[in-house]
Amino acid sequence: MPDQLDVLIDNATITRRVAELARAIEEDHSDVTVVLIGILKGSFHFLSDLSRHLRIDSEVDFLQASSYGNSRESSGVVQIRKDIDIDITGRHVVLVEDIVDTGTTINHLRDLFAVRAPASIRVAALLSKPSAHRVETLIDYVGFEIPNVFVVGYGLDDAERFRNLPYIAVVRNSERSESSA
Ligand code: PRP
Is 31 an active-site residue? Predict the structure, then answer.
């Protein structure tokens, strides 16, 4: 049976919330240039929309991390496939994530960047699944807290499918398990 998609968060709701997150980031970085670091691949829509809402000076870079591959279960091992180009020493950094699921990826990346001595490091996540967190996870800007269901769209994939959807959806009627990002 083909996968069915149930819309969980529509595009208009995402757009409104992303604008609110941009206001919160502006308040915390009113007199500095913020370095937005998008965590690929999943964050590409979120970073794009968030950066266009910001009314402060910003720079953009990308890091590619992967711990799921084509699985719906985290491997628990975060692979860095592409590092950033910008030197973040003394800079004000915001890591931009599509989703914090177990918390493994974002905690690993916070530690990775902290040793590079930025002036500050904060995390913006469009989605968070509090009931799925396996480690204590600090997220400074959260778009939406969602239940522990498998979601796709707005950058999030199921074995690379559905990243293009402009909304967040729950996949139904799939034969695969529904436990993770
Ligand atoms: C996803 C997502 C986050 C991470 C969250 O990345 O984009 O980076 O998993 O899961 P966690 O909190 O359990 O670590 P994924 O490894 O699927 O790579 P992708 O963004 O390229 O799809």
Answer: no
d(CA 90, CA 101) in angstroms, rounded, equals 29
Q: pTM here? A: 0.92
Reading the chain (181 residues) residue by residue, the pLDDT tens digits are: 567 999 999 999 999 999 999 999 999 999 999 999 999 999 999 999 999 999 999 999 999 988 888 888 888 888 899 999 999 999 999 999 999 999 999 999 999 999 999 999 999 999 999 999 999 999 999 999 999 999 999 999 999 999 999 999 999 865 554 444 4
How far apart, in whole angstroms, are the C-alpha atoms of residue 88 and residue 75?
28
Q: For residue 121, what is the enclosing H or E element?
A: strand 120-128
Give φ, ψ of 93 to 5 degrees.
Answer: -110, 140
Closest residue CA from atom 4 of ligand 1: 105
Closest by CA position to 107, among listed 86, 128, 89: 128
Residue 119 CA to ligand 1 center (angstroms) comes to 26
Our answer on whether the CB atom of 105 is closer than 6 Å to any ligand 1 atom is: yes
Nearest Cα residue to 65 out of 84, 50, 48? 84
